[in-house]
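Notebook entry, cofactor series.
This is the third protein in the set we're modelling with a bound small molecule. For this one the ligand is flavin-adenine dinucleotide. I'm keeping the input format identical across the series so the outputs can be compared line by line later. Sequence and SMILES below, as received.
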Amino acid sequence: MNSLDQDHLAENIIWREMLAFTDTFRTFYSPHVVHAVYTELSQERGRSEFELSHKEPQVVENSWIDVTLTFAVKDGELVGRCTAVVSLVQVDGMWKIWMVRSWLESYEGHGHPDEPKSGHDNSNIQSEDHIYDAIIAGGGQSGLGAAGRCKALGVDYILFDNRPSIAKQIGAGYKDWAFKHAINVQEATSVDSASWDGANQLWTVSTSGKNGDQKWRCKNFVLSIGTGHKTPSRPAWASEHEVKRSGFKGTLIHSADYHNANDFAGKRGVVIGTANTGHDIAEDMANLGMDTTMVQRGKTWVIPGQFLVYAHQPDYNLDKPVAEADREQITQPLKVLSELANKHIWAGIRANPKLWDDLEAAGFKTERYGQLFNHLYGRFGGHYIDIGNCARIIKWEVKMKPEVVKELTENGLLFEDGSTLDADLIVLCTGFEHDFRKDAQGIVGHEIAAQMDDFWGLDDEGEIKGYAKLAGHPHLFYFGGEARIARFYSRFVALQLQKLKLGWPIQPYRGP
Ligand SMILES: Cc1cc2nc3c(=O)[nH]c(=O)nc-3n(C[C@H](O)[C@H](O)[C@H](O)COP(=O)(O)OP(=O)(O)OC[C@H]3O[C@@H](n4cnc5c(N)ncnc54)[C@H](O)[C@@H]3O)c2cc1C
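Returned structure with ligand:
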């Protein structure tokens, strides 16, 4: 790596870069591109010599060897302390690099995102005159993660969450987290709007809630208000107009409004949709002794929950610190992670075909070899991680109706094939609209939302769009998502905020 030549790179070389060289998240492919970008940025960033880290080289998947290195880059007056993992394979008797991962760990002399400032001084709630380095809207796992890392890095922030009590929502673990990281939070407070004053380079953030209407000022704004699960998506036949027209005598709701079906015990329940939410609600109905039917339109990929446990166990287990496991997993290019997940999960499916055979015999249309990462990062769902409902379907305790709904009727549903299904309760498990910008627009307004990048889904390089980086505005970030990436990327949100606080702009590499 200290004198990298294009010949050292395997034909399928892939380089995942996270803030060390590029000030953003990029994945580069092909020996020519990787070599050219690496050479250019090594020079531009005054990269130091690489040194072997204390970590022993590791054989991975019986296929390659990972060697962990440390290095430094210069960024203005900042010195970025970085890690790289270089993966080596033998090609025609020569060791070649087929994968490189590089990421920023910390800025020298400015703390480390993994080293919390503990204590209970979580009361830095200032007056309107105070200018925070950052305001974080939303205290789910993402907002809380970013907040903890900000505290560790000396970024002066405040977090608002509109729920009355985060602890009640998240559970006991929250208290430990809040204490460990001295989270500066005002709960029961909704962030209503944020406007950008370009002349003074400041956000004015308006909140309402337990302390009435308040205004706050900050240099940077982080939206971590969820990942676009706010607007329920309803099929055309279940629009308000159609429900009224049909004269349906039962109850029809979207899963977003479902809490339980206790009032319908022993009655007829219909679930529209066969992904995770649909199965969970069908199981709930069946547990209440309801006559339960799931309506399925297309094929659904099903994976037993246990398969995911097996797939993750080599990294996530009681013997390995979570921070180390995250480094090993989350720094991998998503394309590689995806191939590895497919390899392990599909092997499990091939070896145990009975579950899928039995589901099909019970009328459930299965997609046998689905792509986990497409579901998680592309479609935002559409699969079922089986935690019990498959057994109910196989035993016909939950019945299947694999037909397309034509319309709602007085008594239930009419299908395209002319058949009908009567129902007392219909729950639409048809997902949500996923344009995060619509949610953001409610806060930052139309003009700024229009310049924001897409959020979620994969770009051409395989990076998550808009994720944990500047969101089309030089002082706006948006952030959210599942536990592991929320936990790991929170360091990068905080490091970028710290860099801005220290007076250095974020300049994402746009080449080649
Ligand atoms: C059915 C379902 C099952 C899932 N299962 C899993 C799973 O098993 N594992 C997993 O990792 N992920 C799962 N996910 C994804 C899950 O939603 C995310 O992992 C997690 O909730 C994302 O955390 P977050 O902090 O980004 O957003 P959220 O948890 O949605 O937190 C956002 C917070 O912001 C608050 N907020 C929103 N607007 C405002 C405002 N204007 N002002 C102040 N506060 C505001 C909200 O009240 C909330 O507290 C699931 C999602 C769904 C829908």
